[in-house]
């Protein structure tokens, strides 16, 4: 289970935090690290010093340019968020996240990404809206900004707790779950949806009014299966054909 | 409760770890720090940098020569231990420690000390034997040595969880949830959806193929809010207008 949990760091500025993250991950048995557009050289003397023997995690990390590249194959994407945002998103505690992991990862093809933002400014709203849920580590409201590696440590600890809890219990015999849509499939769907809504005159990107954010939140909350997403995309294609059909064509007349 | 939990660091070598400890403590609402025979200058530029705004905790720390001086007034002393020792001692997990805290600290005169050893060698047997219990943070057996500040972070997090759990017995102050769509509103939406899907030629009631059942299951799983359902109905209305628009009309030209 732990090998299918990916830690994603976006725009990290301090190599020491990458090293500290690697150490926290290896301590808790995690190994899959992705760096999105780091704002520093990831592998420096500081990295190796803070990694304290876990720098192989940094050597093995994938460095990519966008969040999509880092989480495209993931079935659950959870963003670490310190603040509540204008548009509230499903918010879970680290403990609830841990408790959900055995179920989320029951399908051997499932993958979970835990996404952490920049040291100074966290995740952007656009990044947060690409997540199924946000996890907030409870902190002192007067001093809420955790060190990046410390935040990874807390969530990695809850991952290990969940894994240990699972080892201690009987193997579950739940029905095999339907495959969930991956992050990449969901993003293709949202692009298709936005294109269609523009096509039928319902959505004006110049006056977005949080329309796409609301539709994202609604859809992500349902955790669509791959087959459901295929149906929704079929509906979009049929809708586009209506918007584009030549004058005089009868909608129902195939 | 949190103000009566003391973090005790014995023989710390790196000022950065003292700073990281101060940050982790302040993040979780702890404030009482004691340094026993530190092997470095506690307050350096590294301390302040890693403390990241929590260096007042280090300024307020008591520096003493012996463990006894640091924990003399404590009613429960728990030592952080990576290893199992020759003489087995009561061993608890971080979670069990947290769960015990409200009871341990019920008496306003009670105080708890969490004692952490040297970066390189931990606590001595003599120090461990001065503790009521040992707490072991579960780790990867192949890489079990946590960074000092990371270990403080995990235990401080469990302290805060325990405190929050205690607060939760009092009435919660959660944000008022958005009103969910009623059953009746949902049924009107599903009728509208089916009508629209027939209108665009996507759905044939004579060959239903469980289409509406699948869309119902997906939608109900998300527990739509009333406002979300209004958006979805708006999209259906715009879609119907496309399907019904007179020949030669431009979809985008309102």
Automatic annotation (TrEMBL), chains A, B:
InterPro entries, per the entry: Alpha/beta_knot_MTases, RNA_MeTrfase_TrmJ/LasT, SpoU_MeTrfase, tRNA_m1G_MTases_N
Domain named tRNA/rRNA methyltransferase SpoU type: residues: 5-157
Chief subcellular location: cytoplasm
GO cellular component: cytosol
Keywords: Cytoplasm, Methyltransferase, S-adenosyl-L-methionine, Transferase, tRNA processing
GO molecular function: RNA binding; tRNA (cytidine(32)-2'-O)-methyltransferase activity; tRNA (cytidine(32)/uridine(32)-2'-O)-methyltransferase activity
Annotated signal peptide: none
Subcellular location: Cytoplasm
Enzyme Commission designation: 2.1.1.200
Reaction(s) catalysed by this chain's protein: cytidine(32) in tRNA + S-adenosyl-L-methionine = 2'-O-methylcytidine(32) in tRNA + S-adenosyl-L-homocysteine + H(+); uridine(32) in tRNA + S-adenosyl-L-methionine = 2'-O-methyluridine(32) in tRNA + S-adenosyl-L-homocysteine + H(+)
BP-aspect Gene Ontology terms: tRNA nucleoside ribose methylation
Subunit structure: Homodimer.
Family that this chain belongs to: Belongs to the class IV-like SAM-binding methyltransferase superfamily. RNA methyltransferase TrmH family.
Functional summary from the UniProt entry: Catalyzes the formation of 2'O-methylated cytidine (Cm32) or 2'O-methylated uridine (Um32) at position 32 in tRNA.
Name this protein carries in UniProt: tRNA (cytidine/uridine-2'-O-)-methyltransferase TrmJ
Organism: Halomonas urmiana
Native organism taxonomy: Bacteria, Pseudomonadati, Pseudomonadota, Gammaproteobacteria, Oceanospirillales
